[in-house]
Amino acid sequence: MGKGRRMIKQGPPGPLDESLVTRKRKDAPPAPVSAQQPKKRKTQDRKPKKAPQVNPGRAGAKSKAKPVKKAAPPPPQSDDDISDEELDDAEDGLDAKVTRLDALGSDIDSEDLDDLDLQDDEFGDDGSVLDSGDDEKPMKKNAMWSDDEDDDDIEEKLTAANIEGLSRKRDMEIAIREAEAAAELEEAQMQTNIAGDRPKVLDDEDEEGRPITNLVTQDMQLLRTRLNDTIRVLDDFKNLAEEGRSRTEYRAQLLKDICAYYGYSEFLADKLLSLFPAREAFAFFEANETPRPIVIRTNTLRTHRRELAQSLIQRGVQLEPVGKWSKVGLQIFDSQVPLGATPEYLAGHYILQAASSFLPVMALAPQEDERVLDMTAAPGGKTTHIAALMKNTGCVFANDANKDRAKGLIGNIHRLGVRNTVVCNYSALEFPKVMGGFDRVLLDAPCSGTGVIAKDASVKTNKTEADFLKLPHLQKQLILAAIDSVDHHSKTGGYIVYSTCSVTVEENEQVVQYALNKRPNVKLVETGLVFGKEGFTKIGGKIFHPSMKMTRRYYPHAYNVDGFFVAKFKKVAATPANAVLAGGVSAHNMVKANSKSNGTSAGKPPVEEEYVDKRPVPENDEESESDFGGWDDEEDQVYMERAERAQMRKKGKNPNADPKAAREKAKAHEGQNGTSAAGEKPAKKEANGSEAKERQNGTSASKGAADKAPAKKEVNGSKAKKADAGAKASGAGSTPKKKTGRKSI
Ligand SMILES: C[S@@+](CC[C@H](N)C(=O)[O-])C[C@H]1O[C@@H](n2cnc3c(N)ncnc32)[C@H](O)[C@@H]1O
């Protein structure tokens, strides 16, 4: 199974005729070799099953758990079933894969590919986007795989290039594995359950009377059997549950067994189990035991996917396009060479990147000549993808708070020939103070990594409740900063994409909901991604805004990609003046901060007006907050106070002097002036003064600055006045009500 999933296609699963699988599974083993089932004989002969790859702690256990592999049942037959001859052809094609694909460069190049008449939109006619430093020959337009092909999908080109053998082989493997899994489940059921019996799951003991949860490794098979039984009972509770037993008891048993079998902390297993129905949860935990396929992303600043594929194939790499949904991904099945050291790699023709990491950038859809911010960018997989989509035009700001990781980011930027990117090293929380006015912002947030357990099994045990408080808090602050960094007037954009490689609700829907609550000036929009499950609008007693459906969830068991979450927002108006910004700074103070650092927004209009929302805040806003949130304010207060104190320390002030009094003073100030510190009238002439510099250095724009009162007329004069008036009209100056919404959400 370990190897298997590496071979399975990523993205939306293809249709599988389950009835056929079931029928054939029942025939096995050993399946009769009949005229209708030619594939099985061949495949079985050729493909001895390999031991699953599991984490070391469980490796022994798991291989023990499956001591005898059933002969693989036959794969499903499709309408266009493959004959013996075809199969031979396909397999020959497979064996000859390298040879025949090698021929791409020669005969296929000159004839077949000419016939394919491929478009090559990515590069334009003259291929001028190719790095001029490269001494790569300009490529014949119709001899490439376009990265913008649509109908005549790249896969068809591969088929044309005789890779069909590989595809068929994989299809068969998938079908066999699916059937095998089902057979295994059935076998387990048979062991414990004669038709009609209610499996004895609770208080289960082995033959020697030991409780099954305490079994040692060699008893993993029993544990697995009980897992299967429990799931069956939960699937059909009415008929299969033991009398007098509740669902809760079965669920508790399942949780214990998952922890014992897969090695999770109970805390995390419970959290993950809550995301799915029992059977799907089982599939999720199983999928976390096997690695995802290796994928590379073609760097279209340097080459084309087709050309890259040809070069790698010549080096003995078995590959295939990652799926119809991506025009730049190649899935690697096998390689004779280390993929991180090929000449193509060193020349920046590709980057090793998990397939699901393509998704946030695809959702962001950056356009040429835009200004884009990648808030948490290191090591740069997504930054370099953004730059490639922008064809090295416009400007990307790639920021990361971690200096060491930023070095890796710089390395990738150089290797991949990215020339439109500035690397910065701020806490992204400070970004709106550093500069704003971006057309698009990507926030690929730091997260718990519950989507990538297959890569990092330590997540199973090292995440605590505290992590699921701290991380979401940081994510919430970051998302506000992301929103506040975007120019809602952007002609081409005004979008924010939020992503994580985690599947927990706390780090995803709850963060998005928080953003919707705190920023009425954004709304969720479609991600434009062609697959992915809808985000939750309701789960575990939590209710989210109906538009949460537009967010997308990705799971390893569903799509064979890392677990991921993607949400896309459109900013429709400026951030309200009474909004509390990331890090606890008031929007109004930010107005002042930005007015003083005029010119930092790289040619864009100054952003002082950004933070004054002229729209009346919708009446029902309060209501929606209590429906969907309002659970964060108290928690936020603690963090905000902490942030303020840290900022004071940074400035060399004593945070213990009398912070409460200072806060009260500021509040009183707010009350008097209609907006928070409305009396502060930023003066343009100070733009390059010491305070502005301070801000550019990433220091606070809050209290110290607020206490000075520069003259308003110098901040775009009447515009600023209008803004203030608008803010007042919208009730922005009133002290925000304390939300008392449900804590549980
Ligand atoms: C999920 S990784 C980003 C991966 C990156 N987008 C890519 O595709 O290569 C999260 C990054 O956030 C950075 N980070 C964490 N807290 C941050 C903060 N407050 N400001 C900026 N970056 C932060 C971490 O250093 C880490 O590199």
Automatic annotation (TrEMBL):
Identify the keywords attached in UniProt to this record, alphabetized: Methyltransferase, Nucleus, Ribosome biogenesis, RNA-binding, S-adenosyl-L-methionine, Transferase
Record region (Disordered): 1-152, 592-745
Q: Where is the composition biased (Low complexity)?
A: 726-735
Among InterPro entries, the record links this protein to: MeTrfase_RsmB-F_NOP2_cat, MeTrfase_RsmB-F_NOP2_dom, Nop2p, RCMT, RCMT_NOP2, RsmB-like_ferredoxin, RsmB/NOL1/NOP2-like_CS, SAM-dependent_MTases_sf
Q: Where is the composition biased (Basic and acidic residues)?
A: 660-670, 681-696, 705-725
Binding locations of S-adenosyl-L-methionine = D400, D444
Comp. bias regions, Acidic residues: 78-93, 108-125, 619-638
Q: Which GO terms describe its molecular function?
A: RNA binding; rRNA (cytosine-C5-)-methyltransferase activity
Which intervals carry biased composition (Basic residues)? 38-50, 736-745
The catalytic residues are C501 (nucleophile)
Segments of skewed composition (Polar residues): 592-601
* Recorded family membership: Belongs to the class I-like SAM-binding methyltransferase superfamily. RsmB/NOP family.
Protein name as annotated: Nucleolar protein 2
